[in-house]
Amino acid sequence: MSIKVLIPTPLQKLTRDQATLECQATSISELLDSLEEDCPGIKGRLCDESGQLRRFINFYVNNEDIRFLDGPQTPLQDGDEVSIVPAIAGG
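Structure tokens predicted for MoaD/ThiS family protein:
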């Protein structure tokens, strides 16, 4: 099961400057573990100390926000596209 993951520019130094990765996972939670195996340190940027997704990082599966799906347990299927999008704040 191949999942396409779009990596934001600030995290690309952890992915050897790759903007897109292919991972094997059946849920967002598994995807995070898969990313950590291939790109050590990335999970610490995406999750807090208790392992929960950071509030300022948004995940989308095929353009749907996982907060309105099943959060980290959101299921993934072959061919899905996951976007990791850091929230932007300012004024």
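The helical segments are 28-38, 42-46.
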